[in-house]
Protein: EamA domain-containing protein
Amino acid sequence: MVKWLVATYQVPQILFMRSLVIVLITGVLIRYHRHPSIFKSPYRNTIVLRAGLMLGAWLLFYNAARHLELAELTTLYFSAPIMVMFLSILVLKEKIGPGRWIACAIGFIGVTVAANPTHSPNLIPAAMCIVAGFCWAWSTILIRLVSRSETTMTQMYATSLLFGLACALSFPWTWQEPDLSGWVLMICLGLVSTLGQFLLYEGFRHAPASALAPVEYSGLIWAFIYGYLIWAEVPATNVFAGAFLIVLASLLLIAWEQRQANLRKRRAPC
Structure:
């Protein structure tokens, strides 16, 4: 949906409509369930910082989408889970075992192969996508911090509200009246984003950031499928190779985590 929309509309307008849908849905649910106001939370400043990081991430990502094929765009953006692993050590003080380090190294090699920095004709969009991944990685770590005291719905509401207000400032220069298909796509993007954000927040609330992040790599498969079916995009060989390494890293990590879980069960007292 993003690649369709950025071909016609400006990025801030798309992001505003996406945020508006999230704010409307979460606002109703917060009022119904009487969630506490996040603006009285000790994490207010963290919420503002996270909104800024997300704004930077999506502005860079959506602009990169104008120049990169879907498979290449998604492959490069998935450098974020690798960065999450490093940040989880520095910020969350999570312990990283050898299995996670191996998966991280393979994933990093995969991103480098896919980006092909020495020969890529789209080096600047590729760099934008990787920086977007870094911003997203930081925002993911902040989810984990804020989730210690705040509900998922209140986090989504506050972040999207700040996000949307920032995008609205650009309307005098960027607003373009959407046609029917534009309205439908923007609303659908907001609905899908609402569900995706809820699942992501809940996942990071209940699982270590360094263990959960690489599972996002499964989205690569769908990016390749949608890119081919919708735009007839056939990625370059280096993108296929990089994606293979990234998916391999994810599968190795899942196997490692399962092995560690089995070992903990065996050591647990009966």
The chain has one domain: 2-267. The chain has a mean pLDDT of 78.
